[in-house]
Amino acid sequence: MKALRLSAALAASAVALTTVSACNSSDKGGEKIAFLMPDIASTRYELFDAPLFKAKVKQLCDDCEVLYQNAGSDAAKQQQQADSMLAQGVKAIVIDPVDSAAAATIVNSAKSRNVPIIAYDRPIPKAKADYYVSFDNEKIGSSIAQSLVDHLKATKAEGGILEVNGSPTDAAAGLIKKGIHSSVDSSGFKLLAEYDTPGWDPTKAQNWVAGQVTQFKGQIAGVVAANDGTGGGSIAAFKAAGVKPVPPVTGNDAELAAIQRVIKGDQYNTISKPIKIVAEAAADIAYQFAQGKKPAGKATLFDTPSQLFIPTVVTKDNVAKVVSEPGFALKVADICTAEYKADCDKLGLK
């Protein structure tokens, strides 16, 4: 009889422990949030976007989990990654699409499961995401191009302009391209040729520019390149052809190599987009959606509530100031290595 009572007591205790455990698990309430980035051609995603996004989510919700994956420029792979995230029960997906058109399928799949989609950096025009967070891409294009045009006019440069655009499958690249044209078309400088760079591939940009250097020998006054990768490829093409000096070339993203090229004088400008700003904004919005809230947009783009931040053009004239600003991702010690120390000293970068 005692054994029976003991067995019953143990059973009751086990039930109680199970109930407490279940309650604790429920109280924890840690949502899963997906963060899907497009490629590794741009170093920013691995080095900055993902770590900053994760850190902000951790600050907002210690129990939340960020599931991060990079598609490596493969739209089909990104689709598989999104499907996997949905199967794992994520409460929100933040996605920088490889292919803006193909990403419409991901949006529709998520909506069928009532999972909100936040487009990040690149918009998704063919399907309405729940939110869009980015820097103003059209403004980026117009700013880098106008900066170059102003420089060419100030130096009384002669010749025309090459335009190296981003990926034709990236809607953000289309906005940057539109912005570039708004400055170049009315500049008085002839647009010699332009190229949409598949996958933002620096090597493809370099190969195209190499052909233009041959075709327009001595006629290229400057190059508007849509990001630092294509800008770096453009500069490499001129150097390989033995062109001295290299015409001024633009960029965008303020990657380490680009900032160093600006300091050295190899690249005319880039764009500082403190990734911390957009990564943390996206984390905050994703967390709100994961809690069932619907944050309001501060703007609207492609019929999507949006937050669009204004970037800063960086040239030799202001690089020291920009690098010292709060939120800039790179440290002077990383930028001003032995090869660049003398140039850094001249510009007051210490």
Automatic annotation (TrEMBL):
Key word Signal present: yes
One Gene Ontology MF term: carbohydrate binding
Entry annotated with the keyword Transport: no
Keywords assigned: Signal
InterPro entries, per the entry: Bact_Solute-Bind_Prot2, Peripla_BP_I, SBP_2_dom
Location in the cell: Cell envelope
Signal sequence interval, chain numbering: 1-22
Ranges in a coiled coil: none
Main location group: other
Domain of life: Bacteria
Protein name: Sugar ABC transporter substrate-binding protein
Organism name: Actinomadura barringtoniae
